[in-house]
Structures are given as structure tokens and as C-alpha cells.
Write a structure and sequence with these properties.
CATH topology of one domain: Ribosomal Protein L13p, Chain: A
Order of helices and strands: EHEHEEHHHEE
Oligomer: single chain
Strand content: 15-25%
Shape: globular
CATH class of one domain: Alpha Beta
Number of strands: 6
Distance between the termini: 36 Å
CATH superfamily of one domain: Ribosomal protein L13
Largest sheet: 4 strands, parallel
């Protein structure tokens, strides 16, 4: 018995839409990351992009558990001396709600050329409007 290796011409892609309204941040992120990588398909191959496109709407209405709103911090470095910037999740949700979900999902995807290509198939929107109706997105419950 031989191991199946997916070829780019054999892969059928789809588009999924996830409504993040009143859903828990981590559960949305893990489900979206698995779909982006293609782990939900029987033809999953780690070194080939077998994943589908994911559109997340209502990112501003996502929930978190525990005391994460006050305690979870996002760090970034400007590149200058003493340029470490820290933002709390509560402020990040207020200023850039799409960035919270985008970071949660993309940090679950491996680094490297394939990972960077997979991350381009993630689209996150703060409200319930999105320009991806032509892709006929499949509603995904989390």
C-alpha cells in the first residue's frame, strides 16, 4: 500500500464563512487554521497546500473567557532601541478587532513559504459585510 500524496491539479478548493458573533476566540482560530491547512480533507498532505479559503465576519463581537481582556498582551517591536510596544487585548479589540482574529489564526500556521501562502487565504472583517459572495461561501458552525 502506497502513501497518497496530493498533487496541485487534484485539489478542489472551497470557501467557508465563519460568523464570530458571540463565539470564543480560540475555538474559531483553531477551526479556521485547520481548514486553511486542509486538515479537514482526506487528501491532506503536509507539504502541499490542500486548504480552503476562510472568511471570518463579525470579528468585533468575538468573546474571550476568563480575564484575558485585561491580562492578554500583544507585543511588537518597532526596530528602534527600547521600541517594544505592548497592547492589551481589550484595547486591541476596540481599535483593531480584525487584527486579533488574524493573529490568533496565523500564529497557528507553520512559518515558511507554504505557511505564508496559506495565510493569504484568510479574510477577516469587523462587521457582517464582506465582498466574497461570488465565491459562494459555505456557512461553517463553530
Amino acid at each position: 500500500m502506497k502513501t497518497y500524496v496530493a498533487k496541485p491539479q487534484d485539489i478542489k478548493t472551497a470557501c467557508y464563512i465563519i460568523d464570530a458573533k458571540d463565539k470564543i476566540l480560540g475555538r474559531i482560530a483553531t477551526r479556521a487554521a485547520a481548514i486553511l491547512r486542509g486538515k479537514h480533507k482526506p487528501i491532506y498532505t503536509p507539504h502541499v497546500d490542500t486548504g480552503d479559503m476562510v472568511v471570518i465576519i463579525n470579528a468585533e463581537k468575538v468573546r474571550v473567557t476568563g480575564r484575558k481582556l485585561k491580562q492578554k498582551e500583544y507585543h511588537r517591536f518597532t526596530g528602534y532601541p527600547s521600541g517594544l510596544k505592548t497592547v492589551v487585548l481589550e484595547d486591541m479589540l476596540r481599535k483593531k478587532p480584525t487584527e486579533v482574529l488574524r493573529l490568533a489564526v496565523t500564529r497557528m500556521i507553520p512559518k515558511g513559504p507554504l505557511g505564508y501562502h496559506i495565510k493569504t487565504k484568510l479574510k477577516v472583517y469587523a462587521g457582517d459585510q464582506h465582498p466574497h459572495q461570488a465565491q459562494k461561501p459555505i456557512v461553517l458552525e463553530v
